[in-house]
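ok new one. same drill as before - C-alpha cells go in, u give me an amino acid for every spot. 131 of them this time. try not to just spam alanines like last time pls lmao
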C-alpha cells in the first residue's frame, strides 16, 4: 500500500533519534501538539523532549526493535502504526529490557510525516544488575 514504507521508516527514525538522544532531530519529527500516552502519564511535546534529555544523562538505549508492524493509511495524509517493540536500556548500573505494545499516529504536514500521538503499554519488563 502506498505510504506504508514511509511510515515504517519514520517510526524507525523516531526510535533512532530517541536512542541516540538527538533532541534536535526529535524536535523536527514531532508536531507542536504531539502527545505521548503511557501507563504512567499523558505528556506533551515539551515534557517528552525534556524527559528524553534527562534520560540521556544517566541512560543508554540500544536500537529499538520493531516487530509485527501493522500500518493503516487513514487518508493520504494520516496513518497509524501499531507494533510490538523491544527496548533495552542501561541506567546507571542497571540493565533493563521491556516488551511494549506501541502505536503512533502520523500526519503529513507540508510534505513531511510528523508524529502527532504516540502510546505505549509495557507488557513485560525486567532489570538486572550489570556485572
Amino acid at each position: 500500500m502506498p505510504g506504508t514504507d514511509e511510515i515504517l521508516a519514520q517510526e524507525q527514525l523516531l526510535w533512532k533519534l530517541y536512542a541516540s538522544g538527538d533532541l534536535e532531530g526529535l524536535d523536527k519529527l514531532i508536531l507542536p501538539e504531539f502527545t505521548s500516552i503511557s501507563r504512567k502519564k499523558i505528556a506533551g511535546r515539551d515534557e517528552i523532549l525534556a524527559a528524553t534529555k534527562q534520560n540521556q544523562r544517566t541512560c543508554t538505549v540500544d536500537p529499538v526493535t520493531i516487530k509485527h508492524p501493522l500500518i493503516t493509511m487513514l487518508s493520504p495524509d494520516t496513518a497509524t502504526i501499531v507494533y510490538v517493540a523491544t527496548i533495552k536500556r542501561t541506567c546507571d548500573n542497571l540493565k533493563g529490557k521491556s516488551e511494549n505494545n506501541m502505536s503512533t499516529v502520523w500526519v503529513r504536514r507540508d510534505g513531511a510525516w510528523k508524529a502527532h500521538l504516540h502510546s505505549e503499554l509495557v507488557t513485560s519488563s525486567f532489570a538486572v544488575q550489570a556485572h
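The mean pLDDT is 91. and btw The domain at 4-129 is CATH 3.10.450.50 (Nuclear Transport Factor 2; Chain: A,).
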